[in-house]
């Protein structure tokens, strides 16, 4: 089975593109969804995070306060490395486990930090989702209500747009109209089906 690694900067439209592949009945494994499941109440990873960051990181109901954690890790690189050391090996394992159960010509593995986490060996081909930096900032402000400084800190913590583009096998620019986006995904879908039979 051909494994396509889908990646891109924050606010570039990775979820939108993933959904278009799902509409074509292509399985999508999403690293962000896995990360959310790993830190649910009662999960071992959440206990490790509390040990590393203290119980201040929790909401009143015992769930993880993502906003607070985000402020921690994007303000301090050491804290960021601490959380990555807990979560990334678990995410990697979960993706490998999910792959075993997929029976398809190809699948999409959406990993926002594909380059940063050295998970490239999980995939056969890299699809980068891209848009101008101004669009990224505007989308994240609308979606998450984050202050500009925090959005910029997240963008700065990721590999550069140039790095992503030069390491991509395929590229989708999400600043185009939605119908064009669906058309682009359909063309890639046909291309991946063809590649998977080689």
Which class of the largest domain in CATH terms? Answer: Alpha Beta
The arrangement of helices and strands along the chain is EHEHHHHEEHHHEH
- What structural class do the secondary elements suggest? alpha/beta
**Count of domain modules:** 2
- Uncertain spans: none
- In the CATH classification, which architecture of the largest domain applies? 3-Layer(aba) Sandwich
Tell me roughly what share of residues is in helical segments: 55-70%
- Estimate the mean pLDDT confidence: 90
Report the CATH superfamily of the largest domain.
P-loop containing nucleotide triphosphate hydrolases
Tally of helical segments: 9
Largest sheet: 5 strands, parallel
Shape descriptor: globular
- Number-wise, the strands total 5
Radius of gyration: 17 Å
Description:
It is a single chain. The protein contains nine helices and five strands; from the N terminus they run E-H-E-H-H-H-H-E-E-H-H-H-E-H. The model has no long low-confidence stretch (mean pLDDT 90). It has 198 residues and is an alpha/beta fold. The chain folds into two domains: 1-27 and 107-198, P-loop containing nucleotide triphosphate hydrolases (Rossmann fold); 31-101, Rossmann fold. It starts with a strand and ends with a helix. It has helices spanning 14-23, 31-38, 44-53, 66-75, 77-100, 133-144, 148-157, 161-166, 178-196; strands spanning 2-8, 28-30, 106-110, 125-130, 170-173. A five-stranded parallel sheet has the order 2-3-1-4-5, with helices on both faces. Helix 3 (44-53) runs antiparallel to helix 5 and helix 4 packs across helix 5 (77-100).
């Amino acid at each position: 089975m051909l494994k396509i690694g889908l990646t891109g900067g924050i606010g570039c439209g990775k979820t939108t593109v993933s959904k278009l592949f799902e509409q074509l009945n292509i399985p999508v494994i999403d690293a962000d969804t896995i990360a959310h499941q790993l830190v649910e109440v009662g999960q071992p990873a959440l206990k490790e995070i509390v040990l590393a960051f203290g119980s201040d990181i929790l909401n009143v109901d015992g769930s993880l306060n993502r906003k607070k954690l985000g402020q921690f890790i994007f303000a301090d690189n050491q804290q960021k490395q601490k959380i990555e050391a807990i979560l990334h090996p678990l995410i990697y394992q979960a993706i490998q486990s999910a792959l075993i159960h997929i029976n398809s010509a190809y699948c999409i593995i959406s990993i926002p930090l594909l380059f940063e986490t050295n998970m490239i060996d999980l995939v056969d081909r890299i699809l980068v989702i891209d848009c101008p930096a101004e669009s990224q900032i505007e989308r994240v402000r609308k979606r998450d209500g984050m202050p500009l400084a925090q959005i910029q800190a997240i963008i700065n913590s990721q590999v550069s747009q140039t790095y992503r583009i030069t390491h991509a096998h395929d590229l989708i620019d999400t600043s185009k109209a939605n119908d064009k986006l669906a058309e682009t995904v359909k063309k890639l879908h046909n291309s991946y089906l063809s590649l998977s039979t080689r």
